[in-house]
From TrEMBL:
GO terms for biological process: regulation of DNA-templated transcription. Keywords: ATP-binding, Nucleotide-binding. PROSITE patterns: HTH_LUXR_1, HTH_LUXR_2. This is Transcriptional regulator. It comes from Phytohabitans rumicis. PANTHER family: TESTICULAR SOLUBLE ADENYLYL CYCLASE, TRANSCRIPTIONAL ACTIVATOR DOMAIN.
Amino acid sequence: MGPWHFVGRADELRRIVESATSEDRRGIILSGTAGIGKTRLLREAVAMLPTDRYAVWTATANIASAGLPFGGLAQVLPGDQPIGVSPAGLLRWAVEALHRQAGGRPIVLAIDDAHLLDPSSAALVYLIARDEHATVLGTLRSGEQVPLPIRALWTDDLVGHAELAPLPANDSKALLVEMLEGPIDSASAERLWRMSAGNPLLLRELVIAASGSRELTRAYGVWRWTGQFDLEPRLTDLIDARIGDLSDDVRGVVELVAFGEPIGLSMLIKATDEEAVESAEERGLIRVVASDRRRHVRLAHPLYGEVVRQRCPVTRTMRLKARLAALVEETGARRRDDLLRMAVWRLDSGTARDPIVLLHAGAQAFSRYNVHLAARLARAALDNGGGFDAADLLATILMFSDQSEEALPVLESVRDKIDSDQRRSRWLVVRGLVSYWGLGRESAVHEIARDADTVADPGYRARVHSFEAIMRMHRLESAEALRLSRAIVDRPAAPVAARALAQCVIAHVQAVRGELDASARTTTGVQDDAPLWRADMPYLQLALELARGTRLAIAGDLAGIDAVAADEFADLADAGDFRLGSGYLSVVRAQAARLRGQAGEALRGSLQACAVLATSRVFAGLAHAERAYAAALLGDADEAAIAMADSDRTQTPGMAVVYPWREQARAWVAACAGDVEGAITMLVALVERLRADDFAGHEVLALYDLVRLGCATLPINWPDGAVEAQTVTERLDELVGVVDGPVAELMVRHARAAGDGVALLTVADAFTERGLLLFAAEATAMAVVRLRAANAGGERSEASARLGDLLARCDALRTPALRAARPMLSERERQIARLAAAGVASKQIADQLFLSTRTVENHLQRVYSKLGVTSRSELAHALRALPEP
């Protein structure tokens, strides 16, 4: 792994540069822990200082030179040090020598690791800082002894002093992208950031360790980390240097916290020794955190725990975990997490005997979407005699961890234990889940419909029918899905989870039909009841997110999508590696980025979804379709075609409900490849199919795609012949009364204004207000074309400028509407236009390009004509709207 580009720390970088260049030039000293990035930050800041205005010198203090007079500044002082001069005389000589070398420029002296400076160098730095023509910048390692002259720099108010904070999560992710030379999925980036505690050096060593143990893998260009790694010597050396030598009693404290954090302070003292706990806290090995009325203890750094846990002998590890479990049992396991933690400790220590405890802990882990831990506990419960309930839970979890082939034998092993309607309903439901979504067997729908009649109790039968309903919805049997779902909702005997799942079906159908307000109310009700159904059916959240995500994407509700992405479920799904949840939410985020005109971010998000869903049968086809759409918007026809082929390969018949998104993407892939007529044909066929399926919400989007391709007046001849042909605009106008929300109205306004440049600009403004910059840019581009055709000079120039501003906020989009508004310039015209826009005079341009002034002026006139501008002041705006050659 080589060096990487500097990322993040923008505020800190600006502060250092300003400290050296502002009028008061006070300078600044940065403190921070080892590896936090002090040296790199100082080096980057110094590199930004103009050496023609400042005499910039850098020095790095070190232990080797700490005992030599002026050893720390030997890199900047002249080599002809006078002999026989007093210490005070040497200081005066050094100051004068630096000023002579500066040649009248203000001095900037940058000292890395200033805590290692020898006394003479430290005194000289202090004197330089007092000089009104000099500035001192420096770094210190926190916790080290600092020479008094250096400490006096900020205590005497000669320089500022600040502690360098750990990297925030976003900067850490950007650094990971640099290290790995490619994107990394959000959950992995979050785990690595937390594990490194925002320390760049530790982050690098973690990546190296994870790569060496093959726990860091790449799929579809996106890196993913399992959370595991083997200790590498360099990493352990770094941690050992921080931990230091431990006495047996302090080691006992650290080990118990490593396996039990967060652990109550009173419990820790009871299990170890109060003096040892105090000593561990004083040495910075543990920290005490207040939580409500309790005090919990954690290790001071997450990697301390990893090193301690991996080094602890197996027998001692088992003893410590058994001790932790016993301590929690003695206190009565009163906290919410106690049951789960206690069960895991019992399992790891080989002392787990009670299948009921293991079963309840597994269900609790699954309700938090920690699928791997839930599977471990459920399997242990089954092995310890948990019977039907344990098999039911384990088979469900195996399905959601992409191990459906293993789930069916687990279910079959307890078929003979079905002795009640309650058990029969649960068994039928899990078998249906595994067969339909896990194994892709469409016959599962007919089987669950047939076998529902074998459940006599109406409440438990409603549970079975709720799964039949959602299967039928996914198969596009919307009418039957609605009938079943409404019957369940109207049945008082139906369990809460069955009613909630039926409501998710209703909400989804409402969304695709354009009943967006009703769908929002339905999903809100389901979410409000989450505490009542999550313990029984945590995976119901997927159905809720699919209904909610579909509605928000159809509505173009970017704020709503952002709220979903920030919801607790997104964090739990990422942290617990619940891939179906995190993968689908990545798709929704990608859709929002696409609508914002951030096609590059949409492509990265969809690639992340593809990587997460690489082994999934459920949402993989949708993820690849979104990837294809984003690539098409960026003009990458080859990548778009590959992604669409991957979508076709991974799509299953059981997920037919997502076909509108996939077929829209297919049309834009064709348009990207230059087959606009083919794209139009695909979209017309899609509109006809959506109308037949009564998917008015999706139909509006497909009709609007036709508007975006310049087909607002295109007639649609409905295949059934019962309806007269309508134009795209007429059909859109008709659907406005059906589809809720302001975005549908904006799409109709765009269609109506297709031939009016001024009206198109008004529509573009409305799209911009909602953050839908892709649509705003295309509407503006169409306005440019219409105004150019009308020879409306002033309005055309304004439209071109507005298009340039919009595209500056988007990625390099390549759609037919944008290409039509952005005439191609020759390479020579482009060169001349850029220089002219930068304010370079025609004669200077001519001299630079070895042309005559007349030739330059002629080229400029052609550029003005092509771009619809009249002056150089308008040229810069218009150039932003040009495609790259």
